Amino acid sequence: MSKSSRRRRAKVRKRVASRTRAVPATAAKLHAARTTRVSVRKVEPRARVVVKAAVEPSRPGFADAVHAVVAPTGLLNVAAIARRELGALFVSPVGWVVAGVFTFLVSGFGFIGTVLAGQQATMDGVFSVITGFLMLILVPVVTMRLIAEERSQGTLELLLTSSVRDWELVVGKWLGAFVFYVLLIATTIVYVVLLAVYLPNKTTVSVAGLSLHLGALDFGLVAAMYIGLVVVGAAAIAIGVLASSVTKNQVIAYIVSLFGLLAIWYTSFLLGLFTGPPLSLFFDYVAGYHRYQSFSLGQVALRDTVYFASLAVGALFLTTRVLGARRWR
After folding, report:
1. Maximum distance among all alpha carbons in the chain?
2. What is the rounded CA–CA span in Å between residue 270 and residue 125?
3. 288-296 and 219-245 helices cross at what angle (nearest 10)?
């Protein structure tokens, strides 16, 4: 074989080899391009068309309408403060000590000592313990911490600089203590039920068309005395709130409240006995003990009710003025 033919064969082999090498490379490139296109198509998310439903605005209900009317009056703030104070009395030891001492004295001296030992079917012993001890001794214990504690802890300034108005704070404090006092008084209704059930002399009382055979109690007298206890307690608690607002010491607040109640309840009455008219008439008018006698006789007199209500409103108004003076210092 000649050299020229060998060269031709070598060239043909090289061409065939180059063609076979170029085919897989091109195929690899095509496969890579297809894979890239597929992956790109997979990564790109399709835009979803979200159709939003039209939401109609809800109309204000009855509760919203009531809130819109009550909120500007400040009653919601008063209720919140009263609820806080009432809860604090039930959580703190002071409230339980007052309730325990009250129950012990009313049960032992007011009911057992009068009804069982004295053989007198009456509620006079219970009411005398309440007016002679609870009103003068225990009410200042309940009210001494209402504002004095806020001043000693430094939280009174936070309340005064908040959106709560002065009268809302004062009325809320008073209302919380007053509800606690009313709950204490309500526990004595148990003794009325016991007398009505176990008294031998029975009388027929018609209530809502029902005939009940109850003990021969003067229920009108009992109801009048309970009304008297409520209005007297409202005035006493208001005086205690005023005493608590003038100092940050709770002991001083207790002493001021105690002497204030003694002056209104007994001192004016005693001065009226040793003075002549017209001073005696004035002292009889301002004496709380003298004003309460009409309730103990079963008479709910309007002038006596207005007297104790005026004491409560006047004391709360002075407390508001005291807090207002602190706001501008």
Report:
1. 167
2. 23
3. 160
> pLDDT tens digits, residue range 31-48?
554 555 444 444 445 555
Classify residue 248 by burial, with Cβ atoms within 10 Å: 0-12, 13-18, 19+.
middle
State the DSSP string of 185-214: HHTTHHHHHHHHHH-SSEEEEEETTEEEEE
**What tokens were used for 5?**
């033919």
Count the helices and strands in the chain (H runs, E runs): 16, 2
- pLDDT digit string, tens, across residues 174-210: 999 999 999 999 998 888 888 777 766 666 666 656 6
Question: Domains of the chain: which residue ranges?
Answer: 94-327
User: What is the bridge-based pairing of β-strands 210-215 and 202-207?
Assistant: antiparallel
Which tokens go with 227? 């009304």
Please, are residues 147 and 247 in contact by the beta-carbon 8 Å criterion? no
Which positions ≥6 away from 88 have C-beta within 8 Å? Answer: 95, 176
